[in-house]
Amino acid sequence: MTQLFGRNADRKLRRGAALVVVLAVSVLLFGYFRVRSDSYWHVGIAREQPVPFNHKLHVQGLKMECGYCHTGATSMAGAGMPSAQNCLTCHSEIWRGVPALEPLHTSAELGTPIPWNSVIWFPDHARFHHGSHIAAGVACSTCHGDVGAMTETSAAVRLTMDFCVDCHEDAMAETGARGSAVTALPAAAFLQRKGSASPAAEGMDPPASHQDGRSLTDCSVCHY
Ligand code: HEC
Ligand code: HEC
Ligand code: HEC
Ligand code: HEC
Ligand code: HEC
């Protein structure tokens, strides 16, 4: 009878199978650590901007509040980016005729938004709402680092699921209602323990907190 498989076939098959397993595990491990790496979250990576904006000069130097330029941050899902008008309030006088500010005048004349390049990476399958967090007293710096001290803007925090869920678990535990609905968050006490700056310190006027009855750790709170 003719031999269907060579004498080494069994050994080769085992080796092949072992290789597949090792490869699969490597890919999974690589994925796991990659998602937790700074580069994946663009931490510390600044991008070229249409106008070389400097947070430190405007926030620390001129004492401007975040909400002056990111007008949605206290109430909307998106914090929003400044329009040319936000800047020209001052720059129609200050630094008039400086070429670096030319895109502001072009945007204002054409009525088009300034094409700022985002330095934050966040997946489409996760949901976020700025207003709810500011209302609960969470400081901008918790998720964005000390932006007011940056001369070039970059991400400072990895916005991973663990990062989000850890705080949501604490928030549930804090109210003694883990796993059930949070009705009223004792924001001040909670944030004191978390060591965040008070919203007032960031120039924010917190609106009333709101909840729709779901636990903050419920998957559907953050996923569509
Ligand atoms: C409240 C007034 C005010 C607003 C609003 C404002 N700026 Fe400024 N900006 C200033 C002042 C003051 C300076 C410093 C000028 C100097 O030192 O000569 C400055 C400096 C700058 C510079 C020079 C930066 C540097 O490193 O020297 C740029 C670029 C700039 N602003 C861009 C912007 C942009 C873009 C906006 C809107 C998002 C904006 N500014 C909004 C007041 C303002
Ligand atoms: C004078 C206007 C102005 C003020 C005040 C200001 N920002 Fe900004 N912010 C900008 C501009 C312009 C950009 C886009 C250019 C850049 O990334 O530097 C930006 C970008 C950002 C980004 C990155 C957004 C993205 O998608 O890349 C974050 C986060 C941010 N700002 C947070 C803050 C915080 C927190 C404060 C208060 C401490 C603040 N900003 C105050 C104008 C402002
Ligand atoms: C609990 C975490 C958290 C806090 C607190 C927070 N942010 Fe954000 N911010 C995010 C996330 C997540 C994104 C990305 C959202 C997305 O891409 O859908 C983001 C995006 C942004 C952006 C990009 C533009 C946009 O419209 O979303 C700006 C600007 C910004 N935040 C500013 C602020 C400012 C200013 C504050 C404080 C008033 C603040 N953030 C507080 C998590 C936070
Ligand atoms: C420092 C604590 C903290 C961190 C970090 C945090 N959250 Fe929250 N989050 C809260 C609190 C407190 C509430 C409840 C706010 C309220 O009562 O309306 C909340 C509410 C929410 C809601 C419900 C909003 C609504 O109005 O229905 C979503 C969605 C959410 N968070 C997503 C996220 C995501 C995504 C991240 C990570 C990028 C994150 N959170 C990080 C504290 C945090
Ligand atoms: C507080 C917000 C929040 C809650 C609650 C939450 N997630 Fe996530 N989840 C995120 C964010 C943000 C990401 C993207 C960041 C990342 O990839 O780590 C994510 C990523 C994921 C991913 C993609 C895989 C990964 O790690 O990148 C899966 C799958 C997932 N979540 C499933 C779940 C399930 C199942 C639940 C309920 C048990 C849940 N999530 C609850 C915020 C949340």
SSE series: HHHHHHHHHH
Query: Distance between the terminal alpha carbons, to the nearest Å?
Result: 61 Å
Biggest sheet features: none
Instruction: Give the DSSP E fraction (strand runs of 2 or more residues).
Output: under 5%
Work out the radius of gyration.
25 Å
Low-confidence stretches: 176-195, 197-211
What is the arithmetic mean of pLDDT?
81
Count of the domains: 2
Shape by Cα distribution: elongated
Secondary structure class reads: mainly alpha
Overall strand count: 0
Q: Count of DSSP helices?
A: 10
Small molecules bound in the structure, each named once: heme C
Report the helical percentage: 40-55%
